[in-house]
Structures are given as structure tokens and as C-alpha cells.
Design brief:
By secondary structure, the chain is of the alpha+beta class. It is built from 23 helices and 23 strands.
Length: about 725
Amino acid sequence: MAMTMELDALEGPPAREPPPIRRLEESVVNRIAAGEVIQRPFSAVKELVENSIDAGSTSISVVIKDGGLKLIHVSDNGHGIRHEDLPILCERHTTSKLSSYEDLQTISSLGFRGEALASMTFVAHVTVTTITEGQTHGYRVSYKEGVMEQEPRPCAAVKGTQIMVENLFYNVAARRKSFKNLSDEYARILDVIGRYAIHKINVSFSCKKHGDSRADIHTTGVGSRTDAIRSVYGPAVARELVEVTASDNEPSHSVFKMEGFISSANYSAKKTTMVLFINDRLVECTALKRAIEVVYSAILPKASKPFIYMSILLPPEHVDVNVHPTKREVSLLNQESVVDNIQNAVEAKLMQSNTTRTYYVQKTLPGASQVINSEEEESPSQKLGTKSQKVPVHKMVRTDSSNPAGRIHAFLQKKPVGGQESQGDLAVMRCAVRQRRNPKETADLTSIQQLVNAIDCNTHSGLLDIIKQCTYVGMADDILALLQYKTQLYLINVVKLRELMYQQAVRRFAHFNAIQLSNPAPVFELLMIALDEEEQAGLWQESDGPKDEIAKLNMQLLEKKAELLAEYFGIRIDKQGNLHSLPLVLDQYTPDMDRLPRFVWTLANDVDWDEEKECFESLAASVGDFYALHPPLLPNPSGEGLKFYQISKEKCSIEQPTANEQQNIDQENPANETNIDQELLAEAETGWAQREWTIQHVLFPSMKLFLKPPNHMANDGTFVQVACLEKLFKIFERC
């Protein structure tokens, strides 16, 4: 018995019989086939548009709802569908394009399988309205799973056919849920319509969203191909097009004819746009695309891509169109030879068009010397025509953005500050700042878009014009700066320009570059420093609770929000509670780190963490206040502020001495430089000089580029007009 059990164990489990092969039900087969033919909404649109073209249409209109999932409505003015063909219209493998397999060798129509409409009826609700020439009325009929739901009903109709596909993939839940971005699906549909619009220039195309009065694509069907490309892809593409042709009539190599347009060396884009038609069929050819990109790689800058449109005609017997379920690809006879010939033609055309290149240059920077070509002389007619216009005396101004010597600081004698950049470095830095434009687009969040829209809608047009065209004059005091606009002089509160920092924080949302701290700052210690400042200001009392407990709770809150702060604002706090980085709001500007404890405190206490929009708005406001150009904590050493530093080092304190203490110090050490804290004085001079440099070379250029002044800035003292040249001239005339 034991021997028998051992033998059974060695033999293992009994072998399973192979599963039986079953014939699938026809409904299952049809639904599987439908998933291959109609992969996305744009696949259905492509099939319907190709049917309209095969019907000889000269006008095709497409209406889309919810990216094509809710509704696809295609109307044309073709020859229509006969009444007797309507019963089998949506059955599989019913077509008017061919009758035998041999017809595929010479097929010229876009459709031939008879699967498109049938596939749509298995995954959507399809309604067809059609009328043929000579009929007094049309017919409307609905289809489901390849068959008519009822007999065709007579109805009023215009010439051609209208096909309505509703609730696409209503019975394929997994496929329907995969389309999360309806705008992306609509963009794919526009791409397909646009490609056919620039190829079939004798057909009028239009495509729009359901309910919109204006079409997103509209071509007239009477213009040139360049006009069609301009209408679909824009004038930037159309004005840089170069016509290219190629052909070969040698049967041993290849027989083809190619016509098209390619972009010149002056055009570049982030992505290659290649519109390829082979025998009027929209297809893709990876080998041809790569060959052309190789040619452009030697001409265009790195990461720049071209625009290509090509129409290739070959003998029908040299093209196998039945190699892909959606007819996206075809197989060519002698494909390598065709690709090589086209590549050589493109290269030759680009070499011819590369004799001229367009470069964009900037105007002469302020303060740059003018280059004078002594070889060029003005003609007598030019000398006669260059009579300068006399400016009225009451409109003549001294300060000009092209003449930095006219600024107020040119008349002041300033002590050299160690470490300051040379004038050449300042010009380079100013150039870099002025050339900057708005950063990357903001994150696709509704709350951020609402904040951006609020900024745009609340802009004061008058102040915007002043800001864009003003000239920096100089600092009037520690907070107010002078700027000139035409013949008017304004005072501007630089601290209140925290609005600029707020707007930059909103617009750079989720796209901040980071300022890395040389030494990570413990958040707990920063909060304790902030609490000490609160106590000095009388905002904290012992009844509020122990400082360390308050700091600990605030640190725990910031640690919970660390992921949000890092992802959207570049504020990185590690798990040990150390602050590693801050957001870069303005290039070339680092905020005053003496205000860092206050900034961390506001993050924990002034931010509304409950609502998304209010959270981002209050976070941006906290960032804006931290980056505002507050006066340094040390008093300005010029003028009366110098008295602060006339204290012996033993008595040096951050607190301002009282009047009696200051009087005693002055009596003991009258104007004695040995009693001035030179180290503290040098630190203050450097800080104030750096702030003034930042205001002139970073804040004001950035303000002119980016700030959209809100309406309240016209009334809250941010901008104040202090003088007008015309009015001053009248006053002096009376004197």
C-alpha cells in the first residue's frame, strides 16, 4: 500500500483536458471589431469625413459635444444615399466602393471595408438623414447593432447626408471612463479636420463645439493651399512655407510624384507637425518623418521642429491600404527609394532657402554707446528731410530712459560700496531682467485661474499705461521713489509693490525655481524668534500659552502641509522640521532673511487651509509680503540715521537710544569716529545700497513687465502725482 501511494505522488495531478473551441456569438464579434475600428471619438469623425469626401461633397460641417462622446454631427452636400440602400447601410462589410478583392489593387476611394458605420452602431446611437438628387423629400432612420430600429421615415432634408452619432461608447464603460480630458479629445478632432482642410482645398470644412456660434476651423474651399494652411495653423506657419516637389518615373526604383510645403529655416516649433497624404489618404510614415527630421536637425536649433505637408501620388497597385484596422498606415512598394528621393529634395530646397535667415534683435540698451559707421554718409535729400522738430519749451524734460545720466543719482556724490558690480555688469543685469517675460503657464486648477482672472479684470488701465512707459528717477526717501511719465512726476511707495510679488506668486504657481538655503533653518527656532517678536510688539501674553507649545503646534501644521508647500510654492520642509528652500519670485532678487521668522509665522497662522482658493490666495499674499522691499531693520546710515551707530561697541544694541542717552553720548564723544561701530555701519551701508540697487535694476524693470495694477492702487497712496511740468511752467511764468 505504501509503495502504491508513493507512485501516485510521483505521477502528479491528473492532466486537464484542453478547453473546447467555441464559435463566438455575432454580437460579441461585432463589438470586438468595433473597438478596433472606432478607438476614440476622432476615429469616428475621420471615418465620417472620409465618407463625405467619397460622396463628392464640396462642403462638410462637423459639430461636436463633450469631445465627441455626447454628440458627433457630420453634414455634407454629397450625392446622398439611395432609399433602397438604407436597410443594409450599417451592416458589416456592405460598401459601394468595391465588389471583388481584386478591386483593392486599384482602389481610389478612402473607405472600402464597410465597417465604419457598422462599428459605430455597436457602440453608439446612430441616426442618418439623407436625400438624393431629384427626390422631393429625404429619409431619416436610426440604427442599433447594425440594423434599422424602424422603417425609414420621410422628412424634410437638404442636399446630402447628415449622420448623428450620440452617446459614443455608452455600452463600453471602461473605454468611456478612460477619456478624462474632453478638451484633449476635441483637439484630436480639430487636428484631423485641419489636416483634411489643407489637403482638400476645393472642399469647405468647418468644425465647432455644439452651441458655439463661431467655428474653431473654417475654410472656404476656394483659396490656395497656403491660404488653407494660414486658416488652420496660423500666419506664423504660412509666411515661412517653402514649396517642394519630387518625382521619379523609373520603374526599377520607384514611380511617384510628391508635392508639398515645408517650413523654412526661420520657423521652429516644439513639436514636428507632419501632414502626409498618400493617394489622398491621410496616413503616417515613420521612416519618412525621421528622414526629414534628420535634414532639419542640421539647420534648426536644438529642440526646434519643423512643419511639413506632403501629398504623394503613386500607382494604386504600388500601395497596400489594407494593413491597419483604422487605415492609419499603408505599405509602399520600394519605400526606401521613395523616402531617399524625398529626403534629397527636401535637403536641396532647404539649402536654397537657407541663404537668408531672420534674427530678432533688441533695441540699444540704455547707456550703451552708439555705433557710428563713418563710411555711410547722408545724401543731400536726407539732410534736407531730417529737419528736427522743435519741442515746446513747457514740454521739454531732462530725464529720459535712453539717458541714464539724467537720473537724480547722477547729481549725487556717492561713496563707493565694496563688492558692488561695475557699470558694465549693471547693464548686463538690466538687460537680463528686461528680457524676461512671464514664466510658464500656471497649473490647470480652477482656483488659480480664478485668481489670475481676478487680477486681469481688476486692472486700472490708466496706471497700467503709466507703469509701462515710466522712467525711474531715484529714491526720494526710504520708502518713496520718484518716477517720470511724460511731463508728470509721481511718487511710488515701493513697499506697497508687494502686489507685484503677489501676482508673480499666483502666475508662477507650481512652476517656481527654488532659492536653496546654505544651511537648513529649523522651523521650530524660527517660530520661537517670531513669538519673541510678537511679545515685543505686545501681541503675545502668558495667558496665550507657553511659547514652545505654540511653536510646536505651528511646526506640526507646517509639516502636514509640507507636500503642498513644496509642490506649489517651492517651500521645502523636511521630516526633521528644517526649512531647505524658498520660492524665487523675481529673478536676481533674494528677500531680506531677517524677516524669515515672520514669514514662517504667517504661513502657520494667516493662511486659510480649509478652502482651496482662499488657501492659495492667502499663501500668495504671505509670499508677497515676505518678498516686499521693506526697509532694512538697521536704520539708514545717511542723514539722521547715523546717530544710531555713534555708540561704543560695549553699548551697541539694536534698540534706538533714548534722547537723554543720545545727549550724553554726544557730550562724551562729540563727532568722534572712533566711537562709531564701523562693522555695524558697513553692514547697514551694504544693506541699504543693495536695496536701492534692487529697486532700480530689478523691481522697476519687473514692475514694467509684469505688474497689472489693481484699481485700489490709484487711491491708496501707492501712486501719487507730485508735479506736472506744464503747470509748473505756468507758475514760473507768473514769477
